[in-house]
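[agent] plan:
  1. take the single chain provided in the ticket
  2. run structure prediction with default settings
  3. attach structure tokens to the ticket
  4. add a short note for the reviewer (M.T.)
[agent] executing step 1
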Amino acid sequence: MADNIIWHDHKITRAERSVNKNQKPCLLWFTGLSGSGKSTVANALDVALHKRGYHTFVLDGDNVRHGLCKDLGFSDDDREENIRRVGEVCKLFADAGLMVMSAFISPFTGDRRLVRKLFPAGEFIEVFIDTPLATCEERDPKGLYQKARSGQIKRFTGIDSPYEVPSRPEVRLDTSSMSVEVCVETLIAYLLERELIIRRD
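[agent] step 2 finished; step 3 output follows
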């Protein structure tokens, strides 16, 4: 980092922004294979929280690669940089007092750990969408598994690139046996239990 770059403190604190929104900031980090249901569940939770009056935002892997990370490929180094950038953006959203949902394959334990370290204890919630590879491949919503199997796509997670399974995620969901509604109910129950949200009904 250049010597002439100096951190500028904000006049309004993170805590004050949270109080103003009447909520506690946090990051729900959805990780899992392509086609596991990360984005679907994250967006459904976003809708459910929005209806309850919470200030939220969803960051999605494909969407981010259209802008912030469009210069990155899918090498291990580029995947690491992709997650590093996303983690920093999530931190900024949380500093603004928002509840953030981030849906990224994020296959490497070390990358997810680095994002966790950006957040105060209890604010990083790892949501492992533990849907079996066979189910994800059967769904293949973008036709990516078929391309990976035929060799058109190289280093595809779950096929010829590893996915490191979270050892102790805060929440584990399997969309092969759980409906989207049940997944959202499970997440809402977790947030209530942790007092990150309150009952408003």
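[agent] step 4 note for reviewer: The two ends are 49 Å apart (CA to CA).
[agent] ticket updated
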